[in-house]
Each structure stands twice: as structure tokens, then as C-alpha cells.
């Protein structure tokens, strides 16, 4: 049974590079959208845990180093769009990842009375590199430290376990820069596609502002674009 959507139910498509705070924003935006955060990665993991046909096929592909095909991911999204909890709107995180997925999404959304909008979190890559490469982790308890903003009391030593802190493999500068390059090559064509399709696009500087302030700016921009209802007592 399809949810009872209003004619302008928002579908917010969230983009942000590694280290941009996208995960935090996807949680905060639920407060102004009042809709679920939908992650295709989470959906696939749920199927894998359940051990159903989709999960078994997905796990087989992932273990062999192959990507889950667009057709399967599109199917999962189409089914999710029809769930009752999407009636107030949705936040899509991690989808679309390919141009084919983006094209299918723009065909799916009107069928279920969704109006798309894109939010792109922009952060200076040099800041991301500096912040992530400055992280250290305790190999015993997993506590994360920052050399700049949250250092351990004794340099290089965990406050709780007394163990020597390590740099995680994905926090090495070369790895971070490679991930950022991959993000650019993957995401730029999709953002260009949405621009050419005249989908409203909100670009917000992540920077060093408090996450709550960034979320407030995003929600205000979405209201200005007509994707969210104005706050009661204000004039749009």
C-alpha cells in the first residue's frame, strides 16, 4: 500500500564528501523534515543480516569485490518509497551513486508524489585532510582523539588504557586524498545531471560551524526553495 503523500512531499537527496559531516546532518535534518533517513547501505546490510535472497546475492557480490547492480539498488529504493513512514518526506543518503540511478530516481519520485531537492555539503578538502589525518585511536578501547581539538593527556597515549595510540589506515593522508578524489569523480556528474534537470540544489558550507547551525541553514534554504513548509508565524 502506497503512503498518503501530499502533492509536494519532499525527497531530499544529500551529498557530502568523506569528513563533511553528512552522517550528522542526515540525522539532524529529520527534525525539520519529519521523515526517515534512507540509506541504501543500511538496507543492504539489513538484508544481509536477514540472510534472504537479496542479502545472499549482495553479500556474494560484495565479498567478490563487485558492486551491487543498479537494478537491485533501484528496486530496494522503489520499495522503500512506498512505506507509510515516508508520508512527510524522506532524506536519501548514499543514493544515487551512479548516473543511471539518478535517472531512475527522477522517474520514480513523481510516481509516488515526491518532489526532489538536492543538498550538497561543501567543505574545504584541506581542512578535511588536516582533521582526519590528525585523528588517533586507541587499539584497545577504540577511543578517538584529535591532535588539535581533543588530544590525549599524555601525547600518543590513551587516557583510559595507557596504550599507544595508532593512526587508522583510512585516516592516512594518502588514503584520505584518494577517497576525496573518488568522491569528486563519482559525484560531480550526478550533481551536474540534477542541475540540468532543474532540480532545486542547495549548497551549504560545512566548515567549522556547529552542526546544529548548519542544519538550520539547510532547513531555511529548503523552505526558501519551496521544498519545506514555512515555519508557522513566518512569511516565506
Can you put this structure into words, describing what you see?
The protein has 236 residues and is of the alpha/beta class. The protein has a domain at 9-124 and 188-224: P-loop containing nucleotide triphosphate hydrolases (Rossmann fold, 3-Layer(aba) Sandwich). The protein has helices at 22-28, 30-33, 40-50, 53-63, 70-81, 99-111, 125-133, 173-196, 211-224, and strands at residues 9-16, 37-39, 90-93, 114-122, 135-137, 144-146, 201-205. Strands 2-3-1-4-7 form a five-stranded parallel sheet, with helices on both faces. Strands 5-6 form a two-stranded antiparallel sheet. Strand 5 and strand 6 (144-146) form a beta hairpin. The two termini are 34 Å apart. The model is unreliable at 232-236 (pLDDT under 50).
Quick synopsis:
By secondary structure, the protein is of the alpha/beta class. The protein contains nine helices and seven strands, in the order βααβαααβαβαββαβα.
Tally of helical runs: 9
Cα-atom radius of gyration: 20 Å
Overall residue-averaged pLDDT value: 89
CATH class of the domain at 9-124 and 188-224: Alpha Beta
- Just name the CATH architecture of the domain at 9-124 and 188-224: 3-Layer(aba) Sandwich
Strand order of the largest sheet: 2-3-1-4-7
- Give the proportion of residues in helices: 40-55%
Structural class: alpha/beta
How would you describe the shape? Answer: globular
CATH superfamily of the domain at 9-124 and 188-224: P-loop containing nucleotide triphosphate hydrolases
Beta content comes to 5-15%
Query: How do the SSEs run, as a string of H and E?
Result: EHHEHHHEHEHEEHEH
Low-confidence stretches: 232-236
CATH topology of the domain at 9-124 and 188-224: Rossmann fold
Q: Please provide the count of β strands.
A: 7
Biggest β-sheet strands, sense, barrel: 5 strands, parallel
- How far the N terminus sits from the C terminus, by CA atoms, comes to 34 Å
